[in-house]
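User: Show me a protein chain along with its predicted structure.
Assistant: Here is one chain, sequence first, then structure tokens.
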Amino acid sequence: MSRSYKHIACCKDSNTKGMKRLANKMVRKIFDIPSGNAYKKVFCSYNISDYKFFETFYSYMNWYKKYKYAKQYTYKELYRKWYKEYKMK
């Protein structure tokens, strides 16, 4: 097992590959694209979800405690959950 970890705690959106492929297919099917950056007008770049979330453990813990219906984790369990989502590669 690898001992490496992310040095900056971030969580990325995992469904970006499908939207990027769809955008690429739409651009390739259109033949009358002038040179330059005109390909950007074919597919809205906001539909490609390239989200990245940066969060420290304490802000994650405060966010999680807001929800009264959330499962009550101990401090160690909550840290492990944050570490799994944000720090592990």
